[in-house]
Protein: 4-hydroxy-tetrahydrodipicolinate reductase
Organism: Marinomonas posidonica
Amino acid sequence: MRVAVIGASGRMGKNLIMAISDMQGVSLGAAILKPGSSLLGADAGEIAGIGKLGVPAVASLEDCIDDFDVLIDFTTPALTLQNAAFCAQYAKAIVVGTTGLNDDEKVQLEGFAKQSPVVFAPNMSVGVNLTLKLLATAAEILGDDYDVEIVEAHHRHKVDSPSGTALRMGEVVADALGRDLKECAVYGREGQIGPRTQKEIGFETIRAGDVVGEHSVWFATEGERIEIVHKASSRMTFAKGAVRAASWLEGKQAGMYDMQDVLNLK
Ligand SMILES: NC(=O)C1=CN([C@@H]2O[C@H](COP(=O)(O)OP(=O)(O)OC[C@H]3O[C@@H](n4cnc5c(N)ncnc54)[C@H](OP(=O)(O)O)[C@@H]3O)[C@@H](O)[C@H]2O)C=CC1
Ligand SMILES: O=C(O)C1=N[C@H](C(=O)O)C[C@H](O)C1
């Protein structure tokens, strides 16, 4: 399976190149950078700091259309949609890790998935996808007597909030409790807010330093609190999951998939 990485010089892009070079059954077919990047033409392996791989970085998907079977995209919502459109048009699979897509952008992505296979997940780590299962079970057992709060922390460079992982965690808990997250979510609190309502799900965001990605879900009631916590210590955990998803897509029919499909957790 030949894999292309777009945003190849990014925090995730470099880890993806490393993960591809470490994994059996996949090879780096192409590395794509922003047009005008000073790194255009540089060897992708050297961009990632792992030595030459013989894959020069190019400025567009068109420049490498015959060099890959699946694209891995950890970039921005607008670019991701352009890339998904390209993959739909040219029968390429795509793994989307990008977060911060709004509802309309997610609908557009689902439209492209009608033409080519897409894995879309806000967190590609095995640990978070296991945590999602734990959260559903905890919510089903604990029910409405436990107040739910979700705290997430990331590095100072992250541009979207709350994290896609936190939102997914909120969706899983809300679904398990028979709630609509759009109705019960509370994003940040300040001023004379009054007592919390029983069914609200609160989100708190921390942006500081070099935190890779930490999520804590509180289930709190009179007398006790259960916290389910996931802490990532390296972006390699996300990269390995993404490359596993890329390999999993080989031979798949068009459609929208997530990491629960890739990890057989459904
Ligand atoms: N699903 C998951 O498991 C994870 C998801 N993410 C998500 O992935 C996304 C990226 O995160 P991160 O890697 O930290 O961000 P970075 O900003 O480090 O990487 C994004 C990359 O995209 C590049 N880029 C932007 N525009 C273009 C373009 N037009 N053509 C080619 N490349 C372009 C940027 O280039 P330049 O630097 O030149 O601007 C940059 O290298 C975020 O949405 C984040 O939330 C992150 C980790 C895990
Ligand atoms: O931006 C990041 O770094 C991360 N973003 C993802 C998210 O928004 O959930 C996944 C991970 O937590 C790292």
About this structure: Residues 99, 122-123, 154, 158, 163-165, 213 surround LZUJQKHR (ligand 2) (CB under 6 Å). The longest strand covers residues 213-221. The chain is about 35% helix and 25% strand.
